[in-house]
Amino acid sequence: INAEYGDIQSQKMGRCPWLLLVAVVWTGLALRPIIPSQLMPHLLRTEDAGKLPGSSTLELRFKLKDRNTDTLAQLLVRVSDPSSPDYGHYLNKQQVDELTAPTQSQFGLLRAWLQEAGVNTPSQRGTSEMVVAVTADDAERLLGDRVVRTRSVMSDGRSYNTLRAASTPAIPKQVMELVQSIELHEAP
């Protein structure tokens, strides 16, 4: 029986030599160590990319802080603990958003500050972000500092520009308490 079984197996393998080759190659690739610097591009250097013209259009993205993060953390522990009555009762995205999203009054404070500063078209994006289009000059006035543009050069030859305030933005304390981050982007 073993001889017959071996004979059948060798006949099957004889018909599919490529399968054996694929298996050997796949195993060899799986055992190859991954060295990130060889496989993934990495940052070589950053350099000054020049001053933005004052009339350049920028997009300012204000990310408001999440609320109730301590409550969410406690809930995550309870739904993951088999001895808890909440075990396995996970929240869906809408429930998490309702728990953590900034309130409309928080958005109202940010909107009021922007409108006081002469920005008349702030728009809310998602549950926690407000976006405004402004000129580079207006962005510098709003942030109380100059906008710096740097170029990041990658090991694969690609590069990209990044915008940031030269130092910590000088915005009112009551607004700063609401904001988690401010991103600057060049308009396309």
N- to C-terminal distance: 73 Å
Shape: flat
Number of helices: 8
Q: SSE order, as H and E?
A: HHHEEHHHEEHEEHE
Beta-strand proportion: 25-35%
Secondary structure: helix percent: 40-55%
Annotation, overall tally of beta strands? 7
Described by strand count, sense and barrel closure, the largest sheet is: 4 strands, antiparallel
Low-confidence stretches: none
With strands numbered from the N-terminus, the spatial order across the biggest sheet is 3-4-2-7
Helix-strand makeup class: alpha+beta
Q: Which radius of gyration do the C-alpha atoms yield? A: 28 Å
Mean pLDDT: 82
Task: Tell me what the structure shows.
- The chain has 188 residues and is an alpha+beta fold.
- It has 8 helices and 7 strands; from the N terminus they run αααββαααββαββαβ.
- It has helices at 2-15, 17-31, 36-39, 69-80, 93-100, 104-116, 136-143, 173-176, and strands spanning 43-48, 57-64, 123-125, 129-135, 147-154, 159-165, 179-186.
- The strands form 2 sheets. A 4-stranded antiparallel β-sheet has the order 3-4-2-7. Strands 1-5-6 form a 3-stranded antiparallel β-sheet.
- The chain is flat, with a radius of gyration of 28 Å.
- The chain starts with a helix and ends with a strand.
